[in-house]
Design a protein that fits this description.
By secondary structure, the protein is an alpha+beta fold. The chain is built from 6 helices and 7 strands. Helix content is 32%, strand content 28%.
């Protein structure tokens, strides 16, 4: 399994990614970022607004996922925000198409779950996945998630909702 490390994206890095300035984003992040992250500007706009409204959310939201050996950005991962009032965090991750099918998604998810499990405020981890997203459905398999229902997302349409108790207990 590959080894990754997460790089927090500061408001300055997010602004540079949104404006398409990869050099400035990399300088602000302190590591070379990738075009894949620039292409995710829609996400960084959401996260930038989120941090502005709630600075503490920066501890939970998306970060660049970097291969620990090569230093290459392979994707990003984080949560939609800090734990809800009932202690639920929703996991989110994406792998650059050039790095898919190499185990990065599972490693990103593994590290995110470890982060959630280490926080006493987290009682469960949620994942919402389109039924046709075979890659994400396969990624969460074996991590203690169970299907808890379905929802309609305005962007993605039908999604299956999965929950996993904190600590990974099935």
């Amino acid at each position: 399994m590959p080894s990754i490390r997460f790089v927090r994206l500061s408001p300055a890095a997010l602004s540079a990614l949104i404006s398409g300035d990869l050099a400035a984003a990399s300088a602000a992040a302190g590591t070379p970022l990738s075009r894949f992250l620039v292409d995710e500007a829609w996400l960084w706009r959401i996260r930038q607004e989120q941090i502005a409204a709630d600075p503490a959310s920066a501890e939970w939201i998306a970060r660049a996922a970097v291969d620990a050996e090569t230093g290459e950005v392979v994707g990003h991962g984080g949560f939609h925000g800090p734990p809800s009032e009932d202690g639920v965090v929703e996991v989110a991750y994406s792998v650059d198409p050039g790095f898919r099918r190499r185990g990065y998604a599972k490693e990103i998810l593994r590290q995110l779950l470890a982060r959630a499990d280490a926080d006493p405020a987290v009682r469960a981890v949620r994942a919402s996945i389109r039924p046709d997203n075979a890659g994400s459905l396969a990624t969460i398999a074996g991590f203690g998630f169970h299907k808890a229902g379905e929802q309609w997302d305005q962007e993605d349409g039908l999604e299956f909702v999965f929950l996993r108790p904190a600590g990974g207990a099935a």
